[in-house]
Design goal:
The chain is an alpha+beta fold. The chain contains four helices and 15 strands. The chain has one domain (8-245): Creatinase/methionine aminopeptidase superfamily (Creatine Amidinohydrolase, Alpha-Beta Complex), CATH 3.90.230.10. It is globular and about 45 Å long. The model has no long low-confidence stretch (mean pLDDT 98). The structure holds 2-amino-4-trifluoromethylsulfanyl-butyric acid and cobalt (II) ion (2 copies).
Length: 250
């Protein structure tokens, strides 16, 4: 497994793509409301991405039929936007935006709460956000890849279950590159992190069991037990003194 070390000019392009993805996620997040279809979210992502001069990386990726993954409630990831799925008061919904700009990719997601959600749903969302942030904080130069997943599992503790079936990934000139970033890693194990590496950290945290199953559409991944799942994602660049989050607003 070869992990690319980005040159300074490439890092700058990764940052620009990351800012564009973050801007689209913020744009969409501010417009979510009860009654909205998930297909309407897809239209917002297409328009906003194009207005920035970018391209939705996910559109057509291994045949994925939309520009964005929209994953409500028991959908763990890879939810396909649909005219038949409407957001409702109390839902939680992950919106996962990946933008290609000038040949580089930025990948970021957040789980939003629609109106007034139940306390246990809000708590799961904050647990997943904290898990992502704990994983990012562990991505220090000189640390090991396994330290990231270990930090995520330590953060979640007994409050939820971290999904093992999907992980983060290297990113740069393609949306998905080596390495695979496990969210349930072992401290001290795996590749050493070096300045100039870039990958995503995107833990999915389930309220019930960690088991998942995929719908007949071949994309939509759900919790096997029907319980809620939440996810947050950043694209991270390993800097000389610590992790740099590229998927932030400029
Ligand atoms: N953005 C997703 C990720 O975090 C990619 C989903 S692949 C797709 O890796 F084909 F479903 F879009
Ligand atoms: Co993503
Ligand atoms: Co990703």
């Amino acid at each position: 497994m070869a992990i690319t070390i980005l040159a300074p000019a490439e890092r700058e392009r990764l940052r620009k793509a990351g800012r564009a993805a973050a801007a689209t996620l913020a744009y969409v997040g501010a417009r979510l409301a009860p009654g909205m279809t998930t297909a309407a979210i897809d239209r917002l992502v297409r328009a906003h991405t194009a207005a920035q001069g970018g391209r939705p990386s996910q559109l057509g990726y291994h045949g994925f039929p939309a520009a964005v993954c929209v994953s409500p409630n028991d959908v763990v990831c890879h939810g396909v936007p649909s005219e038949h799925v409407r957001l409702a008061e109390g839902d939680i919904v992950n919106v996962d935006v990946t933008t290609e700009l000038d040949g580089y990719h930025g990948d970021t997601s957040a789980t939003f709460v629609i109106g007034a959600a139940a306390p246990h749903a809000r708590a799961l969302v904050e647990l997943a956000r904290g898990a992502r942030d704990a994983g990012v904080a562990a991505a220090e130069p000189g640390a090991r890849l396994g330290d990231i997943g270990a930090a995520i599992v330590a953060h979640v503790g007994a409050a939820g279950r971290v999904v093992e079936a999907y992980g983060g990934h290297g990113i740069g000139r393609a949306m998905h590159l080596d390495p695979h970033v496990s969210h349930v890693g072992r401290a001290g194990a795996g590749h050493r992190l070096r300045e100039g590496m870039a990958f995503t950290i995107e833990p999915m945290v389930n309220a019930g069991s960690a088991a998942v199953r995929t719908d007949a559409d071949g994309w939509t991944v759900r919790t096997a037990d029907g319980a809620l799942s939440a996810q947050f994602e950043h694209t991270v660049l390993i800097g000389p003194h610590g992790p740099e989050i590229t998927t932030v607003l400029g």
